[in-house]
Design a protein that fits this description.
Layout: E1 19-23, H1 29-36, E2 40-45, H2 49-58, H3 70-76, E3 91-94, H4 122-133, E4 137-142, H5 154-168, E5 174-180, E6 188-189, E7 191-198, H6 218-222, E8 282-283, H7 305-311, H8 324-333, H9 337-352, H10 419-429
Parallel strand pairs: 1-2, 1-3, 3-4, 6-8
Antiparallel strand pairs: 4-7, 5-7
Helix pairs in contact: 1-9, 3-4, 4-5
Length: 430
Amino acid sequence: MGQTVVGNSGKPLSNGQQLCLSAFSGIGGLDLGLEHAGFSIIGGIEIDAVARRSLALNRPQIPYLKPHDINEVASALVPHRLGIAEGELALLAAGPPCQPFSKAAQWAKTGARGLDDNRADTLQGLLTLVERLLPRAILIENVPGFVRGERSALPILEKRLSAINCRRGTRYKLACRVLNAAEFGVPQLRRRAIVIAFRSGASPMWPTATHRERPMRAWDALHDVCPEAPPAPTGRFARLLPSIPEGFNYQFFTERGDGPELFGYRRRYWSFLLKLAKDRPAWTVPANPGPATGPFHWDSRPLAPEEILRLQTFPKSWRLDGTYREQVRQAGNATPPLLAELLGRSIAAQLYGAKAHRDPGLAIARAESVPPATPPRPVSAEYMALAGHHEAHPGAGYGPSPRFRHPDGSSGDGGTAGSVHTELQAVEAT
């Protein structure tokens, strides 16, 4: 007999019309946005203890299911334990671990392993929940690699949903898009894969991009955020940051930049020494940055957790538990709540005919003006020892693990980072 699954209070979970169960809740970005869209979160599933403590700080009224592992929950959960009947759940929303599908993970020793990664096993638990609950809609948010390339999760999702359709008489059909959050009012260039499936087989109505021509800027989000303890830069290149203009990265110090040539062009990953510009959206904030990984604040320091949360469109009141690195990881892994709100509105419109009569509740206000960029400082003498000619990256595919070879038979020297990631980041930055 499976374990009994109950909320933290041990009481029956609440009921309502637009009921939603949250899986891989993280710090509640997806949940918060869906609540603003009119959904009632009746419970969540989150295995990370630090994230659960952060959830408790901000969402004490939401019960998070025990046991916390999604596979264990799925093996035991029956609808009546949630106070609902089979098929009554409106939405099952999930943000599975992104590392198996992340481009950034390709620079780790293990690389992005897709469905070969043990963390991808959680998808099986998620699909078991689908069959047990038969929600009217499914919403999954992840990195673009979740739906693209040879490591895509789509084959397993389609196979399992097809089997569920055969057994249960449903018509789940996946639809997916990669959306740039900046086009929807998030002050951050953040490309996310969105997967939606309706039990009826209907095709989703996607939200309209409202900020494609006039995106929100980093200044809009951060000008009134005052961190209690702004983090100080660390590492070998910490004192080089003040010499990089706003909106530039290490390439300012290459043969194609205006500074002294300290590095080879495209020999580093795009976010190396990358600084925010006040008048543009932020670049994607990472969850596990190294000491030289941006984006950095225009004040030449790492971003504080409060600032990352704001760039993600969390309310200024949101708090995080844990160490500095744990807080950065939580904030960087989160779903932008504003994007979730807009997706939730589109789903609610299809499920219930719900209409929005106001602007998004999580939208960030545009500042009346933006101060001019701070002029960069001269390069410190300690870095001028690097000055001189540096070979540029030999080209796409000729990195440290080359896919191609030069006509002379050599593979080329890829430097410290591969060009595929650099090019994707550069495209996103434009």
